[in-house]
Amino acid sequence: MILPYKHHKPAIDPTVYLATGAIVTGDVTIEADSTIWFHTVIRGDVSPTKIGKRVNIQDQSMLHQSPNKPLLIEDDVTIGHQVILHSSIIRKNALIGMGSMILDGAEIGEGAFVGAGSLVPPGKKIPAGVLAFGRPAKVIRTLTEEDRTDMERIRREYVEKGALYKDMEDNQ
User: Do you know which InterPro entries this protein is assigned to (predicted)?
Assistant: First the structure.
């Protein structure tokens, strides 16, 4: 469901797959080949939310902001199931594991991996290319080539899966 809020209407590229039950409202931009999965809520009713190309936001995630603190997700990012993102910055090629919470002013570095169930507190910076995990999240180690390959596989599969779902819905 796509809803306006005040004078803002979501700007969603026509290649985006928006699953049944997903809600996008307000000042939200979603770029090409991104996928927004079942029962995800993206509310742009406080500050802008910008979602790059080939981003996958998995089932039951929630995205929101605080006043004057936009939410930015760069290209090729994976957001796992039931993630909460609030007024944060997720740099390109990062992966946020299932059930994690990324709070106001936090920044996840390029190609970083935040492990499932982690809490990244307000203002915390996770460096590029590392695995961070815990509540609060702490850097555990540098990512391996195997980690990066698996993250790329996940990104690619979600783009492909979204295109397949979109095609099936368009041809019903």
Answer: Hexapep, LbH_gamma_CA-like, Transf_Hexapept/Carb_Anhydrase, Trimer_LpxA-like_sf
Beta 23-30 vs 11-12: how paired, if at all? Answer: parallel
pTM above 0.90, yes or no: yes
How do residues 100-115 score in pLDDT, each as one tens digit? 999 999 999 999 999 9
Please count the residues of the chain. Answer: 172
Distance separating alpha carbons of residues 15 and 164, to the nearest angstrom: 11
Q: How far is the C-alpha of 5 from the C-alpha of 48, rounded, in Å?
A: 12
Kindly state the average pLDDT of the residues 50-68.
Answer: 98
Q: Tens of pLDDT along 126-155?
A: 999 999 999 999 999 999 999 999 999 999
Q: Is 116 exposed, middle or buried (0-12, 13-18, 19+ CB in 10 A)?
A: middle
d(CA 114, CA 66): 22
pLDDT-derived band at 170, boundaries 50, 70, 90: confident
